[in-house]
Amino acid sequence: MSEFAGARVLVTGGSGFIGRRLVATLLAEGAEVVVADLNAHPDPEVRSVVGDLRDPGVRGEAVSAGLDGVVHLAAVTSVLRSVEDPAGTYEVNVAATAGLLELAREREVPRFTLASTNAVTGDVGSAPITEWQALRPLTPYGATKAAGEMLLSAYSGVYGMQACALRFANVYGQGMGHKDSFVPRLMRAAAEGAGVQVYGDGTQLRDYVHVDDIVQAVQVAWRTGHNGPLVVGSGRSVSVNELIEAAREVTGAPIPVEHVAAKQGEMPAVVLDTSLAKTLGYEPRHDLTTGLPTVWPDFAPGGVEGQA
Ligand SMILES: NC(=O)c1ccc[n+]([C@@H]2O[C@H](COP(=O)([O-])OP(=O)(O)OC[C@H]3O[C@@H](n4cnc5c(N)ncnc54)[C@H](O)[C@@H]3O)[C@@H](O)[C@H]2O)c1
């Protein structure tokens, strides 16, 4: 039987890209799910607390006594937006997280899982990123996630909360029509017969992880009771050029590329060491060959986005 059968779980950001996929899995496994988000969950059967988690009243309604755990996904997720509005990003990603943790403590919620990012470590050269490197985030987004991780560490250390920060790689998969990361940009370009801009020569390495493997990592964190950070990725980095080639194969579109000057702070390589997650039972099931075809239908002419 699934560890989620009968469990009461609050998923903040449950109406977003990763959240919708997670909520569907939790429901299928017999969990009782409450979503807290700016937008109601598209399935009216799912109980939604609709509002801004910066508002203590919204947090108070969301974190009810009797919950078995919180999966905290709601955030300012755009690095660019965090650069434009660092103070606003702090309010959502740090202050609201602190408020949720405090309510979880007061209401004796035993588990708290935070969606963090591998960007908390900043530039480590071409060394594989592990859980144990110093945190040197290079953007307000990375800094606010690092701050969230520190808060979790304290609530675990002092109050015995099972608190895990999952450091996601670049996530892709079905349901990302509203996102502006590189995979949806490629899909949009393919659908529109357009091209994409690539910073530098495209040889920079990145780890692209499928949303279903992210959902699996949340399950692993819950099942094992892991405390602290956990690096979550596909475990295999590919170059941006390889990703573009894979997108061309899946979409059948030429997707021409314009190389532009690399942005300052553009990292030459992101290589993830996922061995700790693997010792806990995490086994990514997707690579780009199986994963990218799940993204294209949302963008393909006549597909879900095309019909909107
Ligand atoms: N997608 C990725 O590649 C990736 C990588 C690393 C980490 N993450 C983290 O994973 C989490 C989920 O990301 P996603 O890609 O599903 O993003 P998303 O933007 O699709 O979903 C985020 C959800 O949070 C909600 N939200 C934002 N601010 C809120 C607020 N103040 N109050 C209530 N709800 C609010 C939004 O309405 C949205 O539904 C985020 O914490 C993000 O930082 C994502």
Automatic annotation (TrEMBL):
Any coiled-coil regions, as ranges: none
Gene3D superfamilies membership: NAD(P)-binding Rossmann-like Domain
Superkingdom in the source lineage: Bacteria
InterPro entries reported in the protein's UniProt record: Epimerase_deHydtase (IPR001509), NAD(P)-bd_dom_sf (IPR036291)
Pfam families xref list: Epimerase
Domain named NAD-dependent epimerase/dehydratase: residues: 9-228
Similarity comment: family membership: Belongs to the NAD(P)-dependent epimerase/dehydratase family.
Protein name per UniProt: NAD-dependent epimerase/dehydratase family protein
Native organism taxonomy: Bacteria, Bacillati, Actinomycetota, Actinomycetes, Streptosporangiales
